[in-house]
Amino acid sequence: MNERKLQILKTVVERYIKTGEPVGSKVLAEEFKNTVSSATIRNDMAALEQLGYLEQPHTSAGRVPSYRGYRFYISHLMKKVPLLEEEKAAIDQKIVKGDLNPKTVISNAMELLADLTGCAIISKSEQMSFSVITHVEVIPAGRRLYALLMLTSNGAVENRVCRLEFDLSHEQIDYFVNFIQANITGLRVEDLTNEKVLELGVALGSYMVGLAPLLYGVYDITNELRKKSVEIRNESNLLARSDFQNRDVAALLSRKDDLEAVLDKAFDGINVIFGEEDGDFAITNSSLILSSYNQGDRPAGSFGVLGPLRLDYSRIIPYVEYLSDTVSRLMTEAFEADRDKPSRGVRRDIVIGPEDHV
């Protein structure tokens, strides 16, 4: 791979991204200002094809990049277009919109990335797992029916209706709310494990028979919050693309939760996956630019730009990098601000109630 072959590969990729047409030796000769003969260029293109970097759709046609050619271009030849300071400031303003709630920040970032790229955006957030339980309320909802209402630090409001064996007294309800306030409020969702709930059940003492269903109702809510969900934004763009077969897009959208395995491949930095290269992601002529974001030193989620193979990677990748860094920074700031707040009801030891009340 001498400098001339590298320049030929770079030109073929960039021209094909721009025009969608195979690139021939005449175009490449103009790139070299006719200082290299067409025969030499054809020989170099044939060598690049043998190495697996180029493909020839038809015998008389020019060459197009292969998956391997795209990957080499992105890793070694592409010059990223840096974002201007004005662009960064505009992005920051649109992501925050006066609300630093992590859920809102992520939603705004995905919406903005869809607008900037014109592609579909897939995302998976794990932020719910380590959001903090801020409030639990018990509301009588009918004979032996009680509604649990849970609020978390990221703004989620969840509820669950529990059916009990008998009606609870006001004293029992008050006891349960106070017990939750002392032992669960202030915990992260991921910290309310099955083992923790069993421990808390024992701590309920003589109240356990009547209140255990409510305790496990709280646990069920946190289990739902822990579930990872995949979201797709701007999916209509996939159907509008002539690059894609509609049946491939329909199959992807019908099993979007399968994309969780793909999103788990996001790691520090940028990862690019091409369609048909990956068993979990098989849309012909497509690419997925993946990135992850953190909350402090912990992974908080990942997102990907899903579009055609012919993407302007030099422009889109800097957007993805900046949005990933910005979301990580804002989520970390929100986490640290929440952590520094005086916490109410957070106890290291379980608070056990009096045994002589039923």
Automatic annotation (TrEMBL):
GO biological process, one term: negative regulation of DNA-templated transcription
SUPFAM superfamilies in the cross-refs: GAF domain-like, Winged helix' DNA-binding domain
Keywords: Repressor, Stress response, Transcription, Transcription regulation
Domain Heat-inducible transcription repressor HrcA C-terminal stretches: 104-317
A Pfam entry, by short name: HrcA
MF-aspect GO terms: DNA binding
Keyword Repressor part of the UniProt annotation: yes
Entry-linked NCBIfam families: hrcA
Name of this chain's protein: Heat-inducible transcription repressor HrcA
